[in-house]
């Protein structure tokens, strides 16, 4: 008997290339797409180390914890970093980015996270891309949490390095990820003496040994199971349509926000403005007398499989995350989360109106 995971024929170069092409189609991009054999932090770090160095001045937009990490990598590469941190209850605006360029005209690199699952906000990438283009800066984007939940269009938005992972809204595996690389970004890497070469972090190695070599022979053994899972996940998105997958996430976020507003009990959407709220996940602010991690622990007592979590670090006091992405972007899951949060608030002595919450949420679904 052959085992479905173990006794597999090797993944061919042609199949690997076809999976890259499918990712390119999903992103509507003509740029080179490199699928990297690791979790999304691999291309995120590779892209920064490949393009940033002591001559770089980077505008690092911080709208959550990933922006912090990218700033640390940029500094480690020797870049001068201008941090633009915005409160987690909002998104950054193109105007703020424009002001940063006015104050630091030497900026030649912009680092941005599209949507942050950890803080629940989403940023206006197209408008910021316009500013980056006007100023000739290289534009680096973490679209791991947005892809599949909302449009991600690197070519239309002028993104030079667009990193995605399949484990959030795409409902796919976590062990492989991808980056689209513009001609400008390749040129920066080629000109960067510090860009990793002969290294697992090297995008230039992939360009030289794989992309430019006609994608005929893989440089090393691929993560076969994850590649097959990525292919299956892309096929599933194509079969139902990317727009339908995104619509499911938009509805899940809207239903969670409407439901929580009607629920009462002091719980409210953490991100104030609906337009700045990410479709991938909804964050909630707990009332002052209730600790978010305690509320989540209570809510999970009834059903530990619900996609509820407290915020990371200091946010564990005041932020609840409803991770309604991938298979959890459904009415059933959102209703179950509202119900569990209502029970937990009641157990902690705060009254809620669950019926209104479920009714408010229901109006949102098609
Ligand atoms: C989830 C996520 C990643 C990937 O990191 P993991 O914590 O390993 O899943 C990267 N960037 C953003 C913005 C994310 O939300």
In words, what does this structure look like?
It is a single chain. This protein has 366 residues and is α/β, with parallel strands linked by helices. The chain folds into 2 domains: 13-215 and 222-240, 3-Layer(aba) Sandwich (Aspartate Aminotransferase, domain 2), CATH 3.40.640.10; 242-362, Aspartate Aminotransferase, domain 1 (Alpha-Beta Complex), CATH 3.90.1150. Helices cover 42% and strands 14% of the residues. The chain contains 13 helices and 11 strands. The strands form 2 sheets. It has a 7-stranded mixed sheet, with helices on both faces. The longest helix has 22 residues, at 242-263. The structure holds pyridoxal-5'-phosphate. Pyridoxal-5'-phosphate binds at residues 39-41, 66, 113, 116-117, 142, 144-145, 165, 167-168. Pyridoxal-5'-phosphate (PLP) is lined by residues 39-41, 66, 113, 116-117, 142, 144-145, 165, 167-168.
SSE arrangement:
Layout: H1 13-27, E1 32-36, H2 41-51, E2 57-62, H3 65-76, E3 80-85, H4 94-103, E4 109-113, H5 125-134, E5 138-142, H6 154-157, E6 161-165, E7 177-181, H7 183-190, H8 203-211, H9 224-240, H10 242-263, E8 268-269, E9 282-285, H11 292-302, E10 308-310, E11 319-322, H12 331-347, H13 354-362
Parallel strand pairs: 2-3, 2-4, 4-5, 5-6
Antiparallel strand pairs: 1-7, 6-7, 8-9, 9-11, 10-11
The chain binds pyridoxal-5'-phosphate (PLP).
The site of pyridoxal-5'-phosphate has 13 residues, from loops.
